[in-house]
């Protein structure tokens, strides 16, 4: 399984939903898990993004499918990055 970093921004519609139902965040995480992707950790952040989510997924295709599914709802915009641990990165350089 590979690690991914998802940077997300809520749209106006997404902010309205979260304000009315903050628990929606956890509901979406359960939907992501139902797609075969594990949410390892998630943070609400200040700055250019609203959330940083660390995911574990079987492959790029699964993450792409998740991104299209969530993005098509109009409540969030995602940037998803594949990630490699520093130890694994060093191993690839040797």
Number of helices: 4
Order of helix and strand elements from N to C terminus: EHHEEHEH
β-strand number:
4
Outline the low-pLDDT stretches.
none
Structural class per helix/strand content? alpha+beta
Provide the number of structural domains.
1
The description of the largest β-sheet is: 4 strands, antiparallel
* Gross geometry: globular
* CATH 2nd-level architecture: 2-Layer Sandwich
Mean pLDDT: 96
Helix content: 40-55%
Q: In order across it, which strands form the biggest sheet?
A: 2-3-1-4
Kindly, what is the distance between the CA atoms of the first and last residues, rounded to a whole number of angstroms? Answer: 22 Å
CATH fold node name:
Alpha-Beta Plaits
Percentage beta strand: 25-35%
Radius of gyration: 14 Å
- Give the CATH level 1 class: Alpha Beta
What is the CATH superfamily label? Lrp/AsnC effector binding domain/regulation of amino acid metabolism (RAM) domain
Short description:
This protein is α+β, with helices and mostly antiparallel strands. It is 43% helix and 33% strand. The protein has a single domain (2-93), classed as 2-Layer Sandwich (Alpha-Beta Plaits), CATH 3.30.70.
List keywords for this structure.
alpha+beta; globular; Alpha-Beta Plaits; 43% helix; 4 strands; single chain; 4-stranded antiparallel β-sheet; 94 residues
């Amino acid at each position: 399984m590979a690690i991914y970093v998802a940077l997300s921004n809520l749209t106006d519609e997404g902010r309205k939903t979260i304000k009315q139902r903050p628990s929606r965040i956890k509901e979406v995480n359960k939907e992501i898990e139902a797609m075969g992707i594990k949410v390892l950790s998630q943070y609400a952040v200040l700055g250019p993004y609203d959330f940083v989510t660390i995911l574990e997924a079987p492959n790029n295709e699964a993450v792409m499918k998740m991104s299209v599914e969530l993005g098509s709802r109009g409540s969030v915009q995602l940037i998803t990055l594949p990630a490699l641990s520093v130890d694994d990165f060093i191993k690839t350089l040797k």
